[in-house]
Write a structure and sequence with these properties.
320 residues; TIM Barrel; eight-stranded parallel barrel; two-stranded antiparallel sheet; 11 helices; disordered C terminus; Xyl_isomerase-like_TIM-brl
Length: 320
């Protein structure tokens, strides 16, 4: 496995300055944002596509700093019920696929998307319980009429361009846990797999190791991010928390830098599980820690993960 970083952390810096900095910190591979909600601070597909000189410039920068690109990421909602949003995110997605092909990048990361509750919706609707029956009917409609047809088509598009999709399970979208991830992968074909982020599993009460062992070789990319659960607030309000991420004191949970939600042994088990299922790709640091600066969170994550990746053996481990 290679230690990586989601380069959007350093979006205030030029591509070259960001690459130079992370290389000195021991990073081996980078994930670069190309659109969607995250934006395209370092690579704008519309400016690079079909531009051999720009493609060559990017490749030389990577070579100069001894880095590779683990994935291009356009986290968006191409199934958004607002046509303007859906069209923009779909355009970002399709251009990112084409750019990945030109750059020789194997993987494109995105969310599964989330439709509304009907053809007349204006905003996405994420259902969290089966009753009243309206909710179950909404979920069935979303999957059968929107999600499955869309991802079956996208699976063919990815195959045509020799690139893989890594869909990130995330609450608020139709793929948010192991079960929904496996359902999408089965429908979309081998070109569609998962970008696994343990932080999204932790706050839902899931076990990332169990999920990794279930998903197995459908994990195509990995985000290194942690979650801290606050027992007192969680005991009162549960994990379905809509308060601002900035309101850390009142929330039931919050995203943290790796090691600040769960300790070394938990993260060693996660890395061992990844190795058990044959994953040898990027461990891409993502920073969304409201209690640390980007600089502090990044450098602490690098040190924490370097120790784990170095000390973990390459042998297989099995869980009952």
């Amino acid at each position: 496995m290679k230690l990586g970083v989601f380069l959007t952390l350093f979006r205030r810096h030029s591509l070259e300055d960001a690459l130079a900095y992370v290389s000195k910190q021991g990073i081996q591979t980078v994930e670069i944002a190309t659109g969607g909600y995250v934006g395209n601070h370092h690579l704008r597909p519309s400016e690079v596509l079909g531009n051999p000189k720009e493609i060559e410039r990017i490749k030389k920068l990577l070579e100069r700093y001894q880095l590779t690109i683990s994935a291009l990421s356009c986290h968006g909602n191409p199934l958004h019920p607002n046509p303007e949003v859906a069209e923009q995110h779909q355009r970002d997605f399709e251009q990112t696929i084409l750019l990945a092909e030109e750059l020789g990048v194997e993987t494109v990361v995105n969310f599964s998307g989330c439709p509304g509750e009907s053809e007349t919706s204006q905003r996405p609707v994420w259902v969290t319980c089966p009753w009243p029956n309206d909710f179950s009917e909404i979920v069935a409609w979303q999957w059968e009429e929107k999600v499955l047809p869309y991802w079956e088509r996208m699976g063919r598009l990815f195959r045509d361009h020799g690139v893989k999709a890594a869909v990130e399970p995330h609450p608020g979208f139709v793929v948010y846990n192991t079960e929904t991830a496996l359902r999408l992968c089965k429908a979309a074909g081998e070109q569609v797999g998962i970008n696994f982020d343990p932080s999204h599993m932790f706050w839902q009460g899931m076990d990332p190791v169990a999920s990794i062992l279930a998903l197995q070789r459908r994990i195509y990319h990995f985000h290194a991010k942690d979650t801290a659960i606050y027992p007192y607030n969680n005991a009162l309000n549960g994990v379905l928390d809509t308060k601002s991420y900035k309101d850390v004191r009142q929330r039931s949970w919050t995203f943290r830098t790796v090691g600040y939600g769960h300790g070394t042994e938990v993260w060693k088990d996660i890395v061992s599980a990844l190795r058990t299922v044959g994953y040898d790709g990027a461990v891409s640091i993502e920073h969304e820690d409201g209690l640390m600066s980007v600089q502090e969170g990044f450098t602490k994550a690098v040190r924490f993960l370097q120790e784990i990746l170095i000390t973990e053996t390459s042998g297989e481990m099995y869980w009952a």
